[in-house]
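Researcher: Final request for today, and then I'll write up notes for the group meeting. The sequence and the SMILES for zinc ion follow.
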Amino acid sequence: MTDAKPARQRSLRDHNLALALGLVSTASSPLSRARIAALSGLTRATASALVEELLEAGLVCEVALPRTARSGRPATGIALSAGGLGGLGLEINVDYLAATVVDLTGAVVEQVVAEGDQRGRDPVEVLAALRSLALATQKAARPVRVVGAALALPGLLRDRRLLLAPNLGWRDVDIRLGRGLEPALDNEANYAALAEVTTVRQSFVHVSGEIGIGMGIVVAGNVYRGTRGWSGEIGHLTVEHDGPRCSCGARGCLEVFAGQEAIARHGAERAGTALGTALAGVLNVLDLNTVVLGGCYAGMASALIPAIQHELRDRVLWAGLEAPVVEVAVHGRSAAVLGAARSVVTRVLSSPRDLIVTGFR
Ligand SMILES: [Zn+2]
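Model: Predicted protein-zinc ion complex:
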């Protein structure tokens, strides 16, 4: 019983710290301490103490506010610290490795892509190359200090193991990058979808063409990951029962018709029809009405969209009531690595205490 009160007070203070930082990070302009107090419902003294703690941790900074007519004195505003702390996003994909550092405002500070076919390469060799790329990118991003990392992978994960990545030809690979660098892990499609969330675009499927095809399902700003984080494998949705053999071993998967290599061989029209057919099923099942085309699809959207829309109009049950929307991703190929980097920042902003106490690695 004696410990209960301090623990409760601590968690309340952590909650308030996250609340104050949340207000600063979502505000459209810097907030005064008085405004933070008013918006949070905390006392002025409590809000000021929290702001001091955030300033000390380097999460926020002071900026001059315009003089108010009432006092005539220059006021000080609190804003997210740009260029101070940052998140490192990493990606292993079939034909490149990538690393990106973003600051707390989400702005890209440094971005490096190393092109090269990773298929059939020894995972140990690829992970070592990624480590070098990560360290070089962190260094190039200075003075921004990286406080955490996240790695986007093209396959199914459990804990720190990449169980299956058919397009890399990898099975049951232990994903470790070595000393001082232990990134959070998730499927590339989930991170890519996160990068496309905006204040006006909150619920959609993001379908991304590479050698394989990834899909991230976003509902009200959050990625729907399924029970094990394995949702969104649209590339292996059957579009032709007895169709050509896919890298997964099954026949007639969407990937065989709409993967990057299939498009190079057979053109965008066939790919668009297959994509539209598969996506119509997805929209019908999930009650979502917006498709965002990413990866290689972003650059060829004008060639794909007519065939996709044709199938959606024919196959989505409610298409006559509310037309499905097909949009082009803002970030294209860099979405997954950017989403990974931003996920680190989101984690810091939602749990600032973790950063302050543990240094957040
Ligand atoms: Zn397949």
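Model: The first helix runs from residue 4 to 26. The radius of gyration is 23 Å.
Researcher: Thanks, that's everything.
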